[in-house]
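Archive maintenance. Older records in this collection stored only the sequence; we are now back-filling the structure field for every entry so that each record is complete. The fields below show one back-filled record exactly as it appears after the update. Entries are processed alphabetically, and Phosphoenolpyruvate-protein phosphotransferase is next in the queue.

ARCHIVE ENTRY
Title: Phosphoenolpyruvate-protein phosphotransferase
Organism field: Thalassospira profundimaris
Length field: 598
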Amino acid sequence: MQVPPKDQTIPEDHSTGVRRVITGLGASGGIVIGRAFVLDRQYIQVSRKPIAEDAVQAECKRLHDGVSESIDQLKRLKSQSSTADSAASEELGFLLDAYIHMLTQSRLVRGAEELIVSRKLNAVHAVSEVIDAIATQFSGMDDRYIAARATDIREVGLRLMRCLMGETDRAVDKAPKGSILIAEDVSPADMARFEPGQLTAFVTALGGAEGHTAIMARSLGIPAVLGAADIIRGVSGGDQIIVDGGRGEVILSPSEADIAHYSQRRTDWLAARDKLASLRDVPSATRDGVDIDLHANIELPIELSAALENGATGIGLLRSEFMFMNKDYLPDEDEQYEELADIVKRMGGKPVTIRTLDIGGEKLAVALQNEMGSGPNPALGLRGIRLSLRKSELLEAQFAAILRASLHGPIRVLIPMVVGVHEMTRARQIYEAVARRLRKDGHAIPETLPPLGAMIEIPAAAIAIDTLSRECDFFAIGTNDLTQYTLAIDRTDDQVAGLYDPLNPAVLRLIRDVIRVAGERDIPVSVCGEMAGDPRYVPLFIGFGLRNLSMSPVNLLPVKQRLRRLDTRNSEHQASRVMEQWDSARIAMMLDDFNDLA
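Back-filled structure field:
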């Protein structure tokens, strides 16, 4: 259960506009009453440096690439808006069609290209000048409808400028403390810039409940509603709104009755959280005395406090991407060592599993993106161990930093996106070579190297788990990507995210088989995907024989509460019955029935 911080204040006054309820996907539970900060309408600082003559052609291409990206964004928004009520969907669709038209062989694009060629302006400067010229012309017309189109021109132009600037202008850090962030989209890199307590909730027009941004929101305990397409035209900065992250609702211009009702619901939420907190120091064991390790997944260092406060007995997945986010350079070995050593020390002797770099898909590092670009389908492209082996100097620096940090506490090293044993063999060769180099250079590292394991998140790896066991010291099952790749469904794609189903029998069989083979080979295995943090699935994992779960810090206590009511033999029987089923709806019903009774 997730709630806002205790010290959050609720404004006494409220907006006087027309009350509206905008619906989306409840991505992270909690209720917040506060003021909106509309990120995508912030002012953009334009660089006015001219370009060289020989750069004109490349700058024109950059302009047209930005136009293409802007059109793709608008099409995604239009697709997302189809989930709104029919009247809102139709109206928003017309508006977005108009925006697309403004970017298709329009005066805006032609005028910007002409300024690049004739005056050697950079693309962002050129677009800015054309926007000002067109908007000024429209604003001066007698026809009030045409004059109002100046706002639309500026909206389209600012979108194009943001695309050209790589969204680097998004001033998250300028949000007033306690704000509710409103944005078209929020990336994991944006979230890495959040200061504790700065934002109390966020709402986006795009995104799905299973995407990486949603996972980070749950991990940080920030209430969030994603995929609320109508929000892009429904709220202004400073408006008072209510966000219900559990139900996926945003209330604009709330009434006094709304304020009272949601204030009481928030109070109830806090009381439920306090009750859960009493479980922090009790053993995480089943009713029949089987101990279950409950570890935390960590996206950002600021989550460490929450992990310890909620009783985590270790970190089961430390995602190392945070060291690369929002940087236009690649951190070297020393910088990574300092970051990792600090985390290991703060865990006070509890084990820490560090995953090597998994940049790709939703998780982009500016420095690597600039250097390597991105393929047509990043989720199926150069990411995880593929990228690390292609650029072995990245992997070597990470291995060195991890090995040096292992002097400060127990560490395991996890390799992401493994397909086959050849990748683990090569990774181990590099790992051991780095260890030899460190010893030769005089660095103290443990005599016995920390265990090296594989992330099981690609079906090929799960199917060939017996072969992988020859080269791996442990396994960690990533249910998010395993489900996505097994079902060929992009969980971040608004059009198919609803088909993402971790209870699909094929997914469950892969998970069960990995756990079974690991048990037969006496290889430690954990589950660290989103399924691990859902109390609904705990009986299934216990029934499969799993004894280690890793999850977002906010889910540790609800999962502990659930497993303390379970008996392993009953769970094994239920898991056996589930695996006889072929329909995921039937499986879901059986799990719900079992959870109601046990």
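Update note: The chain is about 45% helix and 10% strand. The chain has a mean pLDDT of 85.
Entry marked complete.
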